[in-house]
Amino acid sequence: MPKIGVYICHCGENIAGAVNIEEVKKFVEKLPDVVVVRDYLFMCSDPGQEIIKEDIRKGLVDRVVVAACTPRTHEPIFRKACEDAGLNKYYFEMANIRDQCSWAHWHEKEKATQKAKQLIAAAVAKARLLEPLEDRYVELNKNVMVVGGGIAGIFAALDLANAGFKVYLVEKSPSIGGNMAKLDKTFPTNDCSACILTPLMVEVANHPNVELLTYSEVEAVEGTVGNFRVKVRKKQTYVDWEKCTGCGACVNVCPPKARVPDEFNEGLSLRGAIYIQFPQAVPKKAVIDPDACISCSGRWFGEEPRRTKDGKPILAPCEKVCPTGACSRDEPRDPNGEIIELNVGSIIVATGYRVMDKKYFKEFAPDSPNVITALQMERLISATGPTEGKLIVPSDIPKYLDWKKKVEKGKEAKLEARKPHVITFVSCVGSRDERYHTYCSKVCCMYMLKQAMLLKEKYPDLDIYIFFIDVRTPGKDFDEYYMRCRKLGIKIIKGKVGGVQRLPDERLLVRGYDADLGKPVELISDIVVLATAIEPNTDLKDLARKLGINVGAEGFLRERHTKLYPVDTMTEGIFICGCAQGPKDIPDSVAQAKAAASSAMSLLAPGKMRVEPLISEVNPEKCTGCGICAPLCPYGAIEYVEVDGKRRAKVNEAKCKGCGVCAAACPSKAITLHGFTYEQVLAQIKTIARKGIIEEV
Amino acid sequence: MEITEGVPPVINLTEVAEREKEEFEKKVSELIIEFGAENLLACMQCGACASICPLARVGFEWYNKKLIKAILIGMKEELLDDPTPWACVACNRCTEICPRQVAPFEVMFAMRRLMVEEFAIPTLAIEGLRSLYEHGHAVYMTGREARKKVGLPEKPPTTDSDEKALQDLRTILKNTKLAELGLIPME
């Protein structure tokens, strides 16, 4: 006969506030095979665990039921306590009387108490049927794939590589660097973004343990922790990267007709169909955008060239000018690129963010070129931006580019671009807004202050207005930064702008409200900067599906536990960091990246991993080889083997994750999911159905 | 609610800023800083000063917090005709409570100095100055008959009834900027 000990946790007031513990105890004492019932304020605390251990050591109990919170966070803790006291840890069962009981029925104390009784009785009913199990071990592949080559991905890759792990750094753009490469300076120290980022880009690219896979995307992921098999699609560059030296000669000759908005300059200028992402790109290689290329020489890759009258082949300008032959169109190119297969033990997702486009905000005159997003402002003031950091109104950028072209050709030209006198910032555009995103994008207050500060320090005569709902500066040295801005005479107005109107002279009429003066205000501004929300990348959901990890309602990747497992996911071996997990600034992204790298290291460093034995097993004597289970298995863990000349299902222990789909589907009950056997689960269900009365076996 | 004279229902920030640049020699905030409110720009408009300001409580328009905000965005003309700074009782509670050490009380008094400089002084204040010069009291009581009735001397036992003290006070006042301004007759 089993000797079951039931331990009821108060969880402070969380459980005891709704569940009558004394009443539950009296009920539980009478349940079959229950020999000990105890309660404690916090069962998971050291003294709480000691109560359980003491009973095991004294031989009072040989099965343990803890009625407390969620097994998701606390089951491992109590299993460990049982093991430490000398009991097989699978002689443990947990009843969750908090999340789905006391919390859910907080104002119905009697019902909560009744439900707690039933849940505990069900757990006792299962505990009577528990069997001892032994842990198993799987070998771990020590390679890691980092997806995303922004500041978070770079740091995660560097930390792992420095610790001796092989890292595949996968980036979808031609260059690593991410959004940080677009920034001019960074708060709260106003470090030049390129100066602190580009050395890291070089370091990670040259690291002997890092294999850089840029212009590549994750195609498919199979396998589980320690043994992921990943297919990465290396997109077609149409330029031979072995030969390309990044000289940029091709970029300059691409004809005007093939020019499209430059992603790196956030659309403020144009780039050719053949382009290098930005001057400091790593790797510095050209790619051809097949959608933009107009095949100006009249042939596509692999086609016969057209010929002049005297029979000479007509080459595309990029082809002609390339000193190394990297742009040659002689060979055909597969538009699908190539598939590279990787075997890795762990995956870190650091795919970053994008900012919302201004087009959604009709109230802010998005059709005006002088209404720009903050990231566009970043490009406008950056020395690597469309105007080399020269501050002009965006509507005059084409004039600037024409002027520059003339000057470069040695012609005399006068620049007639208008300089702004008034710049207005609008906060919370698309953030904290039920129509778009309910969350706070977290970095906008600080980057608006930063841009305002940089502008005001460089051009003291500028009139700068920042319209805020709240100024949120909760970070180290952040509020001091805010004070610096105020002392520079930047005009901070509490109240969000409600409308922007485009004027015929391309200036903008801004309508706001000054909550401090209690009056509507209006002003004419040369540039309006919208602090548009930080959003998850469009393909993040798709990637999450491939990886089998969760996204939250707002579209960012969901961590396993907000506080305790902030970089873990519900899929073991996959970690997340940076803005893919939620809006955050550079210091937080770097901290998370290092946390993710460290989590991957502590997982992989031992080389093997203990796995719970809660997996399926087929009884070949009952199995009829009907073939129902294998196609249902989400992990491809079931194969068919010959047993005594008959076809029988067999579970691959390394692949099985214990989801139980096969066991539920098997018509002959030939499959047992250990820890959740047919008998155990049925006993639980029956007990709950009979309002806590356990059926005698 | 009546619409406050001098401040339009919608504040045109462009006009305010252009006027500040074109018509005034210095920014309003610079003047106020020069007149003694050194830490003006540190104000973050938290409103602690207004929560305890007697002026705000009795309904004056430009109490400390609002006055500071108006100065920060460059308003001046709109503020000059307003009597609020002259009603400040100098209780100094705002200065004690301010988390940014702005000393709103100093802003109030700097505003008075600016108003004097601009000859934008309400009758109320001029009457006070005249009374100070004549009797030694900025606020002078008129109820002389009442004093007599209860058996008190007609004039209180202060500068008012002490000719020498009064002459000394007048000499002092004549040596201040008040004499230069010529706001009140000083023979």
The CATH class assignment of the largest domain in chain A is: Alpha Beta
Question: Into which percent range does the helicity of residues of chain B fall?
Answer: 40-55%
- Shape summary of chain B: globular
Strand content of chain A: 15-25%
CATH topology-level fold name of the largest domain in chain B: Fumarate Reductase Iron-sulfur Protein, Chain B, domain 2
Helix count of chain B equals 13
What are the low-pLDDT stretches of chain B, counting only 5+ consecutive residues below 50? none
Largest sheet of chain A: 5 strands, parallel
Our Rg estimate of chain A from Cα atoms comes to 32 Å
Reconstruct the topology from this structure.
The complex is a heterodimer of chains A (about 700) and B (about 190).
Chain A lengths: L3 E6 L11 H9 L4 E7 L5 H12 L5 E6 L2 H14 L7 E5 L1 H5 L6 H19 L8 E4 L4 E4 L3 H12 L4 E4 L14 E2 L4 E2 H14 L3 E4 L2 E9 L2 E8 L14 H5 L6 E2 L8 E2 L2 E2 L11 E2 L28 H5 L16 E7 L1 E4 L3 E3 L15 E3 H8 L15 H12 L13 E8 L14 H15 L4 E6 L9 H10 L3 E4 L4 E4 L5 E7 L4 E7 L1 E6 L1 E3 L3 H8 L26 E3 L9 H19 L3 E4 L4 E3 L10 H4 L5 E6 L2 E6 L9 H5 L5 E3 L4 H12 L8
Parallel strand pairs in A: 1-2, 1-3, 3-4, 6-7, 6-18, 7-10, 18-29, 20-27, 21-22, 21-27, 22-23
Antiparallel strand pairs in A: 5-30, 8-9, 11-12, 12-17, 13-14, 15-16, 19-28, 24-25, 25-26, 31-34, 32-33
Helix pairs in contact in A: 1-5, 2-3, 5-18, 6-7, 6-15, 10-12, 12-13
Chain B lengths: L10 E2 H10 L5 H7 L13 H5 L1 H5 L5 H9 L4 H4 L3 H4 L5 H5 L6 H14 L5 H13 L8 H6 L13 H12 L2 H5 L6
Helix pairs in contact in B: 2-9, 5-9
Question: Would you mind describing this structure in some detail?
Answer:
The complex is a heterodimer of chains A (697) and B (187). Chain A is an alpha/beta fold. Chain A folds into five domains: 4-135, Rossmann fold (3-Layer(aba) Sandwich), CATH 3.40.50; 144-235 and 343-352 and 554-607, FAD/NAD(P)-binding domain (3-Layer(bba) Sandwich); 236-333, 2-Layer Sandwich (Alpha-Beta Plaits); 354-535, FAD/NAD(P)-binding domain, CATH 3.50.50; 615-673, Alpha-Beta Plaits (2-Layer Sandwich). Chain A is built from 18 helices and 34 strands. Chain A has a five-stranded parallel β-sheet with strand order 10-7-6-18-29, covered by helices on one side. In chain A, helix 1 (21-29) runs parallel beside helix 5 (109-127), helix 5 (109-127) runs antiparallel to helix 18 and helix 6 packs parallel to helix 15. Chain A is globular, with a radius of gyration of 32 Å. In chain A, 46% of the residues are buried. The model of chain A has no long low-confidence stretch (mean pLDDT 95). Chain B has 187 residues and is mostly helical. Chain B has two domains: 13-117, Fumarate Reductase Iron-sulfur Protein, Chain B, domain 2, CATH 1.10.1060; 123-180, no CATH class. Chain B has 13 helices and one strand; from the N terminus they run E-H-H-H-H-H-H-H-H-H-H-H-H-H. The radius of gyration of chain B is 19 Å and the shape is globular. The relative contact order of chain B is 0.11. Strand 26 of chain A pairs parallel with strand 1 of chain B.
